[in-house]
Design goal:
Distance between the termini: 23 Å
Number of helices: 11
Helix content: 40-55%
Structural class: alpha+beta
Length: about 375
């Protein structure tokens, strides 16, 4: 399989690298961490409205660019390098594939053009726990009433749940053996959101509660009988995007470590000249290149429209490799920075926190290895 980028893909990568280096340096990340919404609204407008990044994987029919997850993974890698604080992942990597995988024609036509134009932000909740999709974990209920449904439920770990303008929430229809996906504007009466205090302040997570929220009949955006398989595919696609982000963060851990050890001197020479230090950096590079192959391989497989089983296998392999790689590189960055690696003023701790948080989301390494084993043994 040829993983070389095309000229168009290389242009996307170079543009994203240049823009994010300027828009999301360490100082900007730290400022965004202190804000109420967790990101710079002006920078987000550039990303969504001027650059059209939210439109990457949206078909041209709905105002998108009609590109593939490969181009999206290229963007996510650069965002991961800079720990870019934005609702991009929630909007473009969760809400968009959910609408494409399970959405009705009316739902796609009603929501995707606005997302593609950068006019609204959106997010998706997977269930009460929210860490990964499991249809049996959906506890929210939708009771049929005159003119629609009365929805009550609790969703944890919803990315950008407190700032997203559109919430995609699964709920069980009372009296029917059916789970449906509802599209609820954040301003709807009956929604309460509470930002969660997490280890990674660069990505905002929230709890969402619905208390007898009234939703009209047209709030259901999923096709009957498709939500189980559709959101499983959505979760797998999001895991590949998250793996690309982890890959970028791991690369940045190595890059900033190489810059530091070239300057830090001990015994009259840079510590980068010590063989033990070289070996540790070489190990990090090997892990990064292996993870890069897994991520690009998964993205290329998705571009070929795989079956759900193949998609789940590819995403599990990519996410496992990237999670292990980022944690290893982040720990090495902290240690090779020496004493200052543990201080607030230096950045390694931010990447270590991202590694710890993202490693538990959309499947941790143990559960993903079990998934791979189950799929392979089934064959």
């Amino acid at each position: 399989m040829d993983f070389a980028l095309t000229s168009e893909q290389e242009m996307i990568r170079a543009t994203a690298e240049t823009f994010l280096a300027d828009a999301s340096p360490s100082a900007a990340v730290r400022r965004a961490m202190e804000t109420e919404i967790g990101f710079d609204a002006d920078v987000w407008n550039q990303v969504g409205k001027e650059f059209g990044w939210c439109a990457i994987a949206i078909p041209e029919t709905f105002g998108g660019l009609g590109l593939t997850i490969i181009e999206q993974a290229i963007l996510m890698e650069q965002m991961g390098r800079r720990l870019f604080c934005s609702p991009y992942f929630a909007t473009a990597c969760l809400a968009v594939p959910a609408l494409l995988e399970v959405g009705t024609a009316a739902a796609r036509e009603g929501h995707l053009p606005s997302i593609a134009a950068g006019e609204i932000t959106a997010t998706l909740a997977f269930g009460e726990r929210g860490l990964d999709w499991d249809i049996d974990a959906v506890t929210a209920t939708a009771t049929p009433v005159a003119g629609g449904y009365s929805i009550s439920g609790h969703f944890q770990h919803v990315p950008d749940g407190a700032s997203a303008q559109l919430l995609l929430l699964p709920a069980r229809i009372v009296g029917r053996d059916q789970v449906s996906l509802f599209a609820i504007p954040a301003a709807t009466q009956g929604i309460t959101t509470q930002p969660s205090m997490t280890i990674d302040a660069t990505r905002r997570i929230a709890e969402v509660r619905l208390c007898e929220l009234h939703a009209g009949e047209n709030a259901i955006v999923s096709m009957p009988g498709n939500i189980g398989n559709g959101l499983a595919r959505t979760s797998a696609l999001a895991a590949i995007a998250l793996a690309a982000e982890q890959l970028g963060a791991a690369q940045q851990c190595l890059d900033m470590t190489l810059a530091y050890i070239a300057e830090r001197r001990q015994f009259g020479r840079p510590i980068s000249s010590f063989q033990a230090v070289k070996h540790r950096c070489a190990e990090a590079m090997v892990r990064i290149e292996a993870a890069r192959s897994a991520v690009l391989g998964a993205a290329c497989a998705v571009a070929a429209s795989p079956t759900t089983s193949t998609l789940m296998l590819e995403s599990a392999c990519a996410k496992t490799m990237a999670s292990d790689c980022l944690f290893h590189c982040a720990v090495e960055a902290v240690q090779l920075h020496g004493g200052v690696g543990f201080t607030w003023e230096y950045d390694p701790h931010l990447y270590l926190k991202r590694a710890q948080a993202s490693g538990q989301w959309l499947g941790n390494c143990d559960s993903l290895r079990e998934r791979v084993a189950a799929i392979l043994l089934d064959r």
